[in-house]
Amino acid sequence: MNSRNTILKKLRATQTPFTDVAPIEQRRNMVPLAETTPDALTQRFIAEAEKIGCRVYAAEDAAAAFERVFALLNGDKQISAWDDAFLPMPEFSETLKTAGIEITASDNGQVRLGITGIDAGLASTGSLIFSSGHGKYRTVSLLPTVYVAIMTTNQIVADFETWVALQKERGLDQFRQSSNTVIISGPSKTADIAQELILGAHGPKEVHIILLP
Amino acid sequence: MEIQSNNFVSLSAIAIRNSEMQKAVSKGTRNGYDKRLAAMFAYGEEHGEAMRQQAAEAKRRALRQLPELLEMAEANMQANGIHVLWALDADEANRQVMDIIKRHEVKRVAKGKSMATEEIGLNHVLETNGIDVVETDLGEYIIQLNHEPPSHIVAPVIHKTKEEIRDIFIEKLNMPPTDDAAEMVAFARKKLRDIFLSADLGVSGGNFIIAETGTLCLVENEANGRMCTTMPRVHVAVVGIEKMVENFEDYATLTQVLPRSSTGQHMTVYTSMINGPKRPGDADGPEHVYVILLDNGRSDIYATKYAEALACIRCGACQNACPVYRSTGGHAYGWVYGGPIGAVLTPLFVGLDKAKPLPQASSLCGSCKQVCPVDIDLPRMLLDLRHDTIQQGLGDTLWNLGIKSWAWGNSSPRLFEMGGMAARLGQGVIGQNLPAPLGEWTKFRDFPSFAPKSFRQLWRERQKAQAQS
User: Fold this and answer.
1) Mean pLDDT value across residues B26-35
2) How many angstroms away from the CA of A150 is the closest CA of chain B?
3) Total structural domains in chain A?
4) Tens-digit pLDDT profile for residues A119-136
5) pLDDT of residue B332
6) Do B54 and A201 touch (CB under 8 A)?
7) B145 part of contact set with chain A, CB < 8 Å
8) Domain around A175
9) Cβ-contact A206, A147 below 8 angstroms
10) Helical H runs in B330-412?
11) Could you tell me the residue ranges of all domains in chain B?
12) What is the mean pLDDT of residues B380-402?
């Protein structure tokens, strides 16, 4: 008998444990949110994101967002970014190209800054959540030392539980189609050396969020 | 890893005299303890407690239907493009990893933090087979350089001070001398970045597997986990069979309770949900993803009164809370898992005869149960293991004799009284330090003085006095 069947048979041969645990009636969400309106959720998202070390910029339009991107670029001529279709900015790559900036893969060791869009922002914890896919490169939010997420306020949902419910509504097949979905909550960090909090362990040291209306 | 758990007493005696380790462990555990309190009860005690119970029930509901969830998870993972393997024990799991390594002509392995691979001793097997394997969690990297096992479930190098870590980096890697932790991290980042970019295979553990979607879930802060599961061509996850979660909603609870209990974060920096290898058209991500479902004794535990131990989500809160762990650190426990959960898991995994002292390494203060995010009754299991120790004839002969004499002495009023008289007389002669072998007990404490007269004596005198008056 192979190991699979041996294991399953052993588990089934015994009396089932925890038969007294009641079936779930209603779950509580991890963070009880008082905020319900979109504006209040946006404010909560900004506050929570800043609490975990993100820098959030509210940009009133695409021009202001571009201005912020150029300021963060600080003279760099190369960046890595998601494809235009997944960024909430019109003609993103064209605008950068005109300014003499090349969009390239992030694993060449030269790129300091990576830009992505997101699928959703979580107000309860200030987290960013997105799946991978064609044009939504995983390395862009991972390899550069400075990571910039560009998003719109209508992408903000209350919390992870709400996001999960939305996935179920859409059908879990869509979630499963992406090889990877990640929730990012602030810059990469470690406290392994004597509890001292150091940012930029292996991933980005800085996380900037540009928030469009 | 050689099992040293029967040497707990001497190992802890050494640990207690190591002042550097005392400083480091005490700082680390207290820090973890305080942060957990703040995060778990950020929205009030009632809410935090309710979430804890919700998490506890989610794990127990999953364990109740473990075989069904394993089958469901397997089918869903396969549908997602993940190769699923089953390993009955450590040898089989290690063999499976080696087979994958040969199949994909792997030369270098980047390893993310994983207790399951510590349990099976994967690094040792890979090194013996000439494979270059590098731990990439900063703490794990440091102790790998120093040839040590981790001493804490989530903070593997909690037992070392900054100065000791500095010296390891200088000695092993020629780091330019610095006392700045940020510079040490930057130095290690550079070294490990080269590993991520050149490794052919990444190894990870798994915090949860969502059965209904076939999703492997990981939490981490450094991004080394994302690196190991993104950059190399092949990703292998070694995951205990008890990590099943029934559905997405339960996962949402558990993945938020875990960091709150562990590091006091509301979310870890990276919470990854892995649904398989890269899809057609994806530019990055591994080409092959394997999940090895590891039994290694878990199905045996499942059939016992210790099944509750399988609910553990490896947060380390019980270690931070335990007065014994705080004094001894993790290495004294002599195997992979230290602290209260280690004192339960180690005898169950390696055999009670190889870990006799561990169930005794507790004052049964109850702190571990109180902080456990899934409400595991660790004190109850420690007591049951003590009971098993005697039942299996593993108790200390002298202790057994002592207890038997005690029982005999209490079996009749006459014997009881004579014993008391003898003890009072004896104490008058020898004082408050008992002779060997009982002297072990009074080495660090005084034997309490007996009252000059026993209750029975007083009672008799009183009766007599009353009769006379």
Assistant:
1) 96
2) 18
3) 1
4) 999 999 999 999 999 999
5) 97
6) no
7) no
8) 36-212
9) yes
10) 339-350, 367-371, 378-391, 397-409
11) 41-296, 397-468
12) 92
Read off the pLDDT of each residue in B187-209 and give the average, rounded to a whole number.
97
Mean pLDDT on A86-101: 95
Domain assignment present for A31: no
**CATH classification of the domain holding A123:** 3.40.50.10420
Nearest to B50 among A11, A28, A193 (CB): A28
pLDDT exceeds 80 at position B438: no
Hey, is the C-beta of B226 within 8 angstroms of any chain A C-beta? yes
Q: Which residue has the higher pLDDT, A66 or B430?
A: A66
Please give the sequence-ordered ranges of beta strands (E in DSSP) within B263-388, or none if there are none: 270-274, 288-294
Contact flag A142-B182 (C-beta cutoff 8 Å): no
> Does the beta carbon of B50 lie under 8 angstroms from any beta carbon of chain A?
yes
In a domain, A14, yes or no: no
Pairing of strands A113-116, A146-152: parallel
Residue A66, min C-alpha distance to chain B (Å): 26
Measured between beta carbons, the chain B residues lying within 8 angstroms of A127 are 267, 271
Question: How large is the ipTM?
Answer: 0.98
* Closest residue in B to A161 (Cα–Cα): B252
What pLDDT is stored for residue B115 in this prediction?
A: 96
How many angstroms separate the Cα of B447 from the Cα of each of A100, B247, B296, B342, B431? 84, 56, 45, 32, 8
| CATH class of this structure's domain B41-296 | alpha beta
Contact A184 B185 (CB under 8 A): no
Residue A3 lies in a domain: no
Q: What is the mean pLDDT of residues A141-149?
A: 97
A24/B278 CB distance under 8 A: no
Of the partner residues B92, B186, B271, the one whose CB lies closest to the CB of residue A182: B271
Confidence of residue B452 (pLDDT cuts 50, 70, 90): confident
The CA-to-CA distance between both ends of chain B, in Å, stands at 76
| Nearest C-alpha neighbor of B345 from the set B383, B386, B395, B301 | B301
Question: In which residue are the tokens 């306020």 written?
Answer: A153
CA distance B164 to B87: 38
What letter does residue A136 receive in the DSSP assignment? B
Q: Report whether the peptide linkage leading into residue B259 is cis, meaning its omega lies within 30 degrees of zero.
A: no
> For residue B38, which of B206, B262, B243 has the smallest C-alpha distance?
B262
Beta bridge partners, B299, equal none
Q: Could you give the CA distance from residue A199 to residue A203 in angstroms, rounded to a whole number?
A: 9
- The answer to whether B266 contacts A125, with C-beta atoms less than 8 Å apart, is yes
